[in-house]
Amino acid sequence: MVVISQNPTMKMEKIRDDIELPIINLCNRSEAMKEMVKACEEYGFFKVINHGVPQGIISQVEEEARGFFAKPGPEKMRAGPPYGCKNIGLQGDVGEVEYLILQTNSPFIIPTDESNKFRSAINAYVEAVRKLACDILDLLVEGVCGSEGGSALSRLMRDSENDSILRLNHYPAGEVSKIGFGEHTDPQIITLLRSNGVEGLQISVQDGLWVPVNPYPDSAFCVNVGDILRVMTNGRFVSVKHRVAVQAYESRMSIAYFVAPALHATVSCLPGLGLPLYRSFTWGEYKQAVYTGRLADTRLNLFALP
Ligand code: GA4
Known about the structure:
This protein is α+β, with helices and mostly antiparallel strands. It has one domain: B-lactam Antibiotic, Isopenicillin N Synthase, Chain (Jelly Rolls). Helices cover 27% and strands 26% of the residues. The chain has 7 helices and 16 strands. It has helices at residues 29-42, 55-69, 73-77, 117-145, 154-158, 227-232, 283-292; strands spanning 2-4, 14-16, 23-25, 45-49, 83-88, 93-103, 165-171, 179-184, 190-195, 201-206, 209-212, 221-225, 242-245, 252-259, 266-267, 281-282. It has an 8-stranded mixed beta sheet with strand order 3-4-12-9-14-7-6-5. A 6-stranded mixed beta sheet has the order 1-2-11-10-13-8, with no helix packed on it. A two-stranded antiparallel ribbon has the order 15-16. Strand 5 (83-88) and strand 6 form a beta hairpin. The radius of gyration is 19 Å and the shape is globular. The N and C termini lie far apart (38 Å). Residues 1-8 have low confidence and may be disordered. The structure holds gibberellin A4.
């Protein structure tokens, strides 16, 4: 069904609540491969279950993150640069969100975490989601290029200098008219997202038409295609704009693992996928464009070939 939103800051937008993202069972690998490729072409988003990330590891990091965000503001500010509140990026974008952004290729400290429990929970989580990301990337490459594709994508993140990041977000409950995180595509290869069962994520299936992503099943990871994977599949997979709306009834918490290559890695289309739509570039070059632009920009246009 298509409903017109009454929401003043989200303007008069259409919300479609009859589209469900596919829930893909990773136990059945050949089925999963086909379903994932189809979902990446159609929505740029899917959910995975039986993903192999132990529930204990997920619960631990979620509990620590809840504890961190429940601390008083000044104490969180002490966490310094990894902690941010409302300001998104460097060009004046804002949202009703507080967050921790952690670079996963170098050791980090969270000054409020005297016992190091949070850090250990994060490290265990990153190790587990990294494996899952490699697994998904290998299946996707095989689905698109056949077995000759090998580990073309997962190899990028096996590089110890890969630029993957972990972002923990907290969207306090509030006025539903407010945007927690404005519309954007993820710049990286793929994103693996967990949420605390509170809705808010919406994806843009076509201009001005938003689909709310239901946060169930609870055990699932929501996976989405980033701009780099779009380039590498020569536009066959779509990196789709998404955003997060504030919920009135409960705070939303999410943990996103953004899979990125090393800064020096060259990004270009995988072999056998036709005439390239984009020129080759390094991830460092793309990241630079990402941080000099605004959140909602369609940065890939800058790299499109005539
Ligand atoms: C969107 C995806 C990730 O959250 C993120 C964001 C980054 C940031 O918050 O620092 C950016 C945004 C994201 C894309 C455009 C730029 C950079 C904010 C912003 C305005 C961590 C990322 O990699 O790109």
